[in-house]
Amino acid sequence: MKTHLSSQAKINEAIAHLLTLPTDGSYEFEAKKLPHQRTIKQNAGMWLYLSMTAKALNEAGFEMVVTIAKKEVQIPWTKDTLKQVVWDGIMVKLLNKESTTELETDEVTQVYEVMNRFTSDTFGVGMNFPSKESIGDG
Fold first, then answer.
1. Which of 16, 47, 54, 91 would disulfide-bridge 77, Cβ 3.0–4.6 Å?
2. pTM for the full model?
3. 36-80: pLDDT as tens digits
4. Shortest CA distance to 96 belongs to which of 106, 86, 107?
């Protein structure tokens, strides 16, 4: 039996199962603490940070340069393009993770710190990661 004990109900269910095991053999059990996935507030904070940074980059006159039909085109930054190009690029190289859903709580900070240093050094645009208060309850 392998189970993820993420609540008291799951723990009680596992204990009940253990109590039904026959005593005619030996059993081995292993318990290990799993890392915490990034929180909903961290995810909301990431998107707020990306929105604020995209706005600041655009206001400072920095646009993203893309190639379309062998021509360079400048387009304004959005939270989505910033995430796809910069956040995800750093996340893959730094942590070898393809999705923010794979991030652990401490890894959000690691990606933020590298990205914020990059935007600060390259464009002179740096942002504090949004506080819990600025994120709200959503």
1. 54
2. 0.73
3. 888 899 999 999 999 999 999 999 999 999 999 999 999 999 999
4. 107
Count CA atoms within 13 Å of residue 41 on its CB side. Answer: 10
Give the chain's largest Cα–Cα span.
Answer: 74
